Amino acid sequence: MLDMSDYWPVVLGIGVGVFLIRYSFILIIDKVTLPEMVQRMLRYIPASVLPALIVPAVLLHKDGGVTTFAGWDQLAAALIAVLVAWKTRNMLATIASGMIVLWGILFFL
Fold it and tell me: Where does the chain show beta strands of DSSP type E?
């Protein structure tokens, strides 16, 4: 059993450390002017991180240390969700359509 007197100081220390690291960037960015090229590159970070997080979650399945293809059901639901996002630009419609398609495929198959 974990002794709670050791647990909370570690949690608080990690929390303060993470806060200081993140807050330091906020303080630095106000005082430093980044070159135009760096500012242009930073605009593309969210667009590159999102697919890097979503694609492995949709396409890959890990079972006992072996990574395999997740299945056509998840791929089909993701493609429908992408089409709905492209046409409607509505996040709620995108999530709902992807989940409805996935549940429908799993229910009927």
Answer: 60-63, 66-69
Nearest-angstrom CA–CA distance, 2 and 14: 17
Instruction: Name residue, tokens 């330091």.
Output: 24
The vertex-51 CA angle with 94 and 98, nearest 5°, equals 25
Distance of CA 39 to the CA centre of its chain: 22
What pLDDT, in 10s, does the model give residues 42-95? 899 998 998 999 999 899 988 888 889 989 999 999 999 999 999 999 999 999
Domain borders along the chain are: 1-32
Structure tokens at 76: 């089909």
Cα–Cα separations (whole angstroms), residue 42 to 33, 35, 53: 13, 11, 18
Can you say how many angstroms the Cα of residue 32 is from the centroid of all Cα atoms in its chain? 29
**Structure pTM?**
0.62
3 state SS of 34 = coil
Count Cα neighbours of 56 within 13 Å in the Cβ-side half-sphere.
Answer: 6
